[in-house]
Amino acid sequence: MHSRFYSTKQLLRLIPLTALLLSACNLNNINTQGSGSDTDVQWQAQKNALNKISQYETRGAFAYIEESNKVYARFYWRDKGEETYRLLLTNPLGTTELDLNVTPGVIEMTDNKGQKYYSDNPVEMIYQLTGMVIPLKNLRAWLIGLPGDATNFELDSHHLLKSVRWPAPEGDWVVTYQAYDSSVTPNLPQRLELRQGQRLIKLKMDNWDIQ
User: Fold this and answer.
1) Ranges under pLDDT 70 in the chain
2) Residue 35, burial from CB neighbour count under 10 angstroms (0-12, 13-18, 19+)
3) What is the CATH number of the domain that holds 72?
4) Three-state secondary structure call for residue 187
5) Is the pTM of this model over 0.70?
6) What local confidence, expressed as pLDDT, does residue 40 receive?
7) What are 50-94's pLDDT values in tens digits?
8) Is residue 132 part of a domain?
9) 89 and 74 in contact (C-beta within 8 Å)?
10) What share of residues in the chain are helix, strand, coil (percent, to 5)?
11) Please, are residues 47 and 61 in contact by the beta-carbon 8 Å criterion?
12) Can you give the pLDDT at residue 7?
């Protein structure tokens, strides 16, 4: 089924923003290393704890890198479950570059000129407006350290998600967890990368608010 996409202005790509440091250290981080079984007791406990999270918010640094499109921004993600979430990208001055709000039955995106767009497919809408391909459905799970729809994944020696491979029509998405934040319970990702061929998305979470 083709998605509906409505616009009253010419589509504009995001202007790449000043690069933000994605590799800053944190005293509370846990570096992922080693391997573990996806059936072990500790992983099951971690997964159960993550599945009990009904709402969460996080913010930090975002980078989208491919040959023809590079975007660097601050990001804010709020997830309220029930297909309700928000992705906000801002430039270093705090000005909105992209504001996506998804609720049941209504998907709205505001660009950096304040123009609003509506669609039934947020992934396609972001691509049409910015050229970025972001796997939003699974990203909601990947952000907190769950495999989402993926069945091919690996654990680290701390019984946390280390990597995920998820098949997609344009090629597999490979998610790599580089560090976790041990200051929150359950431990949540602090740095991760998503790759699909030459396409790379880097996320660094500064803090978490979970319920």
Assistant:
1) 1-38
2) exposed
3) 2.50.20.10
4) coil
5) yes
6) 82
7) 999 999 999 999 999 999 999 999 999 999 988 999 999 999 889
8) yes
9) yes
10) 15, 45, 40
11) no
12) 36
Domain count across the chain: 1
Residue-range definition of the domain harbouring residue 139: 41-210
The verdict on residue 1 lying in a domain is no
Tokens found for residue 13: 């790509």
Asked whether residue 197 is assigned to any structural domain, the reply reads yes
* Beta-bridge partner residues of 36: 155
Q: Is residue 126 helix, strand or coil?
A: helix
> What are the beta bridge partners of residue 163?
154, 176
Question: Which strand (E) or helix (H) includes residue 103?
Answer: strand 96-103
Residue 102 tokens, joined: 């998804």
Can you give the pLDDT at residue 49? Answer: 97
Q: Would you list the DSSP string of 76-87?
A: EEEEEETTEEEE
Count Cα neighbours of 44 within 13 Å in the Cβ-side half-sphere. 3
Classified as helix, coil or strand, 182 is: coil
User: Could you count the other beta carbons within 10 Å of the beta carbon of residue 81?
Assistant: 12
Instruction: Kindly state the greatest CA–CA separation across the chain.
Output: 53
Cα–chain center distance at 207: 14
Instruction: Write down the pLDDT at residue 192.
Output: 98
The answer to whether the CB of 130 falls within 8 A of the CB of 16 is no
Asked if the bond preceding 92 is cis, omega within 30° of 0, the reply is no
Residue type, 162: K
Residue 3 lies in a domain: no
